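Morning - methionine sulfoxide inputs below, output right after.
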Amino acid sequence: MAEELIIKKGTREEQYLELIPQIAALVAGEPDLIANLANISAALKQQFGWLWIGFYLVKGDDLVLAPFQGPIACTRIRKGRGVCGTAWEQMKTIIVPDVNAFPGHISCSSLSKSEIVIPIIWNGEVIGVLDIDDSNYSAFDKTDELFLTEILGLLRS
Ligand code: SME
């Protein structure tokens, strides 16, 4: 495992292309989900510096806070609630350019302006979500969806 992440400047795509092999190396051979989620959230925070990057894991009818980087956050989110609970229920990625315009958005930090939530789907079931918030509006787009989904795929390889 590399001791230090190599941080790349450039387009968003170039940054992901440099980061993804490093994340693949970090999680390769490590079966512990929590350990891998912890390193993925840290690597994304180091590379992109977004406000909040983290995971919620499904426990019964709730999403429960898991490894993250950033300010303290809500610990439990009900299925169907907020952006995270909606992404879980609908089993699809949700990109929110302006959190104020998303009905039912759960505000964990007043600094958060935009958000992306990607469900982690294993064997047809959502086991958790990756949630990223930023303090700028419209911080996320389809490029993020594509590469972040690829990163989540590394958890099972
Ligand atoms: N905004 C999320 C809640 C989680 S925090 O952003 C970390 C939501 O609406 O589900």
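Note: The chain is about 35% helix and 25% strand.

O.
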